[in-house]
C-alpha cells in the first residue's frame, strides 16, 4: 500500500527531527521553512522543497505544521493576503495537523477556518524536545475527530512513541499548556535554587545529588540542573518559547477562571533572560539573570 503524501511546515528545533523521521519511514514529503536553507538539507534525503506553504501542501493528504507561536502559525496557514496560505491550497480530503504549541483561542479559529473549507483538523502538539524529535520518540497530544486521527495515525507513528487521543479539537493545546506551565514553573524555581546554592557556600554538586534523588527530584530537574551548572545552553528548547508558553498558559487558564500566579512569576524571570539576550539559547539559561544579579 502506497504511503500517504505529507507536507511539513516548519523545520526548526522540532520540525527538523520530524522531517528526518518521516523520510526515514518512506513518506513522500514536501517541506517548507521560512529560511529556505533549513529546508534544503532535506532535499538530498528526498524531500521536495517548496517555495511557499501553499506549494508545500499541493497534493498532500496529511499536512503538519511545527511553528513557534500563534503569529507564525497564522501566517503559514492563512497567508499574508488571505489566499496564499496552506489552508486555501489544501486538497479536498486532506487532514490538517497543527503540532505547534499555540493558544487554544487560535486553535479554535483555525479549526473553524478548516471546517469552512470542509477539511478535517487535529490539534496535536507534542511533548519532548530536540533529542526526542530526532529519535522519533515524541508524544502527540491530540484533539479532534477519531476519523481524522485514524487517517493521520500512520504519519504520527513515524515520529512518536505515543499518541494520546484526548477529545474534541482544542484538547491537545490545553493539555500542552498545562504541561509547559508546570515545567516552566519548575525550571524557574530550579534556577533560583541553583543561584541560591552557588551563593550559600554549600557544595553544589553534593547538594544537587541529594535534591535529585529526593522529593524535589524529576527527570526535568536532573537534566536542566546539569545544563545550568555546566552552562551548556545548546538548544533543546528555546528559552523565548517557554516565556511564550507561560503567557499562553496564563491567558488560557484565566478563561477558565484560574489565576496562574506561579506562571506569572516564572514568566518574569524568563522575560528578564530574554531581555538580557538569552532568548535564543536553551531554556536552562534562565539561571543567568540570577547569576548576573548576584555580581551586581
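Sequence proposed for the structure above (296 residues):
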Amino acid at each position: 500500500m502506497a504511503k500517504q503524501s505529507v507536507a511539513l511546515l516548519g523545520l526548526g528545533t522540532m520540525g527538523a527531527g520530524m522531517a528526518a523521521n518521516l523520510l526515514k519511514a518512506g513518506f513522500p514529503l514536501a517541506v517548507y521553512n521560512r529560511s529556505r536553507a533549513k529546508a534544503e538539507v532535506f532535499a538530498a534525503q528526498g524531500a521536495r522543497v517548496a517555495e511557499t506553504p501553499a506549494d508545500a501542501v499541493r497534493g498532500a493528504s496529511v499536512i503538519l505544521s511545527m511553528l513557534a507561536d500563534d503569529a507564525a502559525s497564522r501566517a503559514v496557514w492563512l497567508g499574508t493576503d488571505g489566499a496564499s496560505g496552506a489552508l486555501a491550497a489544501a486538497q479536498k480530503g486532506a487532514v490538517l495537523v497543527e503540532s505547534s504549541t499555540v493558544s487554544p483561542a487560535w486553535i479554535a479559529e483555525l479549526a473553524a477556518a478548516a471546517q469552512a473549507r470542509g477539511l478535517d483538523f487535529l490539534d496535536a502538539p507534542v511533548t519532548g524536545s530536540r533529542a526526542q524529535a530526532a529519535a522519533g520518540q515524541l508524544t502527540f497530544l491530540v484533539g479532534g475527530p477519531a476519523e481524522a486521527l485514524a487517517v493521520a495515525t500512520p504519519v504520527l507513528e513515524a515520529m512518536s512513541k505515543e499518541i494520546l487521543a484526548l477529545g474534541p479539537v482544542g484538547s491537545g493545546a490545553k493539555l500542552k499548556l498545562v504541561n509547559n506551565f508546570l515545567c516552566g514553573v519548575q525550571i524557574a524555581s530550579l534556577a533560583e535554587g541553583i543561584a541560591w546554592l552557588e551563593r550559600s557556600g554549600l557544595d553544589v554538586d553534593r547538594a544537587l545529588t541529594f535534591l535529585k534523588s529526593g522529593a524535589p527530584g524529576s527527570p526535568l530537574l536532573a537534566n536542566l540542573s546539569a545544563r545550568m551548572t555546566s552552562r551548556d545552553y545548546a538548544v533543546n528548547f528555546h528559552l523565548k518559547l517557554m516565556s511564550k508558553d507561560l503567557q499562553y498558559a496564563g491567558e488560557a487558564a484565566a478563561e477558565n477562571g484560574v489565576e496562574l500566579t506561579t506562571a506569572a512569576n516564572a514568566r518574569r524571570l524568563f522575560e528578564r533572560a530574554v531581555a538580557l539576550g538569552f532568548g535564543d539559547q536553551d531554556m536552562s539559561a534562565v539561571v543567568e539573570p540570577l547569576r548576573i544579579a548576584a555580581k551586581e
